[in-house]
Amino acid sequence: QLYAEVVKGSSLRGEGESLYRHYDFADASVASLAQRNVVDALLIVILNGVERQDKRWDRRHLSYLQADFNDIVATAAVVLPSGEIIWEYPGTGDEEFLAMQYPDFDEAFYNTTDQVRVKYITSAGLERTLEEQESGVFGKSEFSRRYLRLFSVIAAELKPGLQNPFKAKESSSSVLNGK
Question: What is the pLDDT along the chain (179 residues), one digit of tens a residue?
Fold first, then answer.
């Protein structure tokens, strides 16, 4: 329901490993959320499925398969109450949130063939992957390893002074390129 209120449209951008979904946001809904929560901007993170060309390696990193794979990717954006996107993380390249498929190199090896089939990860396997917790010096985290990694990447990409009122207004392309 929140998605339907906040997102007014989306489009695919890029190609191959750089394919991602760009989102446009509903001004009134974003403004209402920002005002209700007394914030200057919203960090919106959306998980979506995409089929894209990718290279997947076997466990020993000796062989790879380049093919179309289904992945769950994360797109994030910092959105002002006006609906303007001042920062975007497209979730391209090696940054899939969750792989939905894998190449079965073992099956090809044991059947002595070069034909490597792409298979879907089972629902139970996906659940175990999402539930896997980070272990550290002080014990296990209460958050999933996947979500911790996602938010660590997003936090590293965000730069201090993103919304500095004393800085000259930058073009959206320079903000997206991290300048």
Answer: 899 999 999 998 887 767 788 999 999 999 999 999 999 999 999 998 888 888 899 988 899 999 999 999 899 999 999 999 999 998 775 668 999 999 999 999 999 999 999 999 999 999 999 998 877 666 667 788 899 989 988 998 887 666 555 554 444 444 444 43
| H/E run at residue 87 | strand 85-89
Task: Find all residues with CB under 8 Å of 104, minimum gap 6, and list them.
Answer: 116, 117, 118, 119
CB distance 40 to 29 below 8 Å: no
Give how far the C-alpha of residue 5 lies from the chain's centroid of Cα atoms, to the nearest Å: 21
Cβ contacts of residue 118 below 8 Å, gap of 6+? 65, 67, 68, 69, 101, 102, 103, 104
For the record, the structure tokens of 109 come out as 């090896």
